[in-house]
Amino acid sequence: MISNKRSFSLAGAGLAAVFFLTSPLAQAEVVSLGEATKSVGSFLSALTQPPVPKPDPQLRYVRDALGKLKPENWIAFSPANPKAHVYVFADATCPYSRELHQKVPEFNAKGIEVRYVAWPTGQLDEPAWTIYKNIWCSDNPKQALDDAMKGKRVKVQTCSKNDISTLAAQQDAGKAVGVTATPTTYYQDGHWAQGVKRTEGLPERAILGAEIVSNRR
């Protein structure tokens, strides 16, 4: 039922428009606009929609910091056709990192690539980094990391300056995004989850993160 009737003139156009307003507002129609008849329901509906949220600068910062990492700065456990990827800052001697590592085959089966970034405690010249030097400097870093995560001994290796710089880049990335504990998982949209329990539903969340980033391009 028509509840109100209003008219107005378009300045400078010499045209008159008559609105028959019903409830809700989005159902309003222009009955006449000069000689043309148009519906403005969609326009009025758009006016009632909430504004699009602005990008979070902190998430953008995290994405940019992780974007500086190169393939040689991580060890990837990948499915045949990845749908998304996550960065996991981990310590191969940490029981929680090892617990999360047990779920990697499940993540891979759902299309998620896991990119491990080294994050043991201490500095590069401290003992905690020795195991990672042996992992990254081995002939097969992926196998060495898998062995270390399973508690197996990793053969002592001799590292080149390039290997050390690769580890340094990982440490710099961890400091930049504020890693404080292991494991810490970062999604492509910049959100993160610390620990193991908070990664429940990781495959679905990872795919969502990838879609968010893709839609912003």
UniProtKB/TrEMBL annotation:
The keyword Ubl conjugation does not apply. Its main location: periplasm. Residues 1-28 form the signal peptide. GO terms for cellular component: periplasmic space. It holds the Pfam family Thioredoxin_2. Keywords: Periplasm, Redox-active center, Signal. Residues 82-201 form the Thioredoxin-like fold domain. It comes from the Bacteria. It is found in: Periplasm. The keyword Nucleotide-binding does not apply. CDD domains: DsbA_DsbC_DsbG. Belongs to the thioredoxin family. DsbC subfamily. Required for disulfide bond formation in some periplasmic proteins. Acts by transferring its disulfide bond to other proteins and is reduced in the process. This is Thiol:disulfide interchange protein. It comes from Pseudomonas fluorescens.
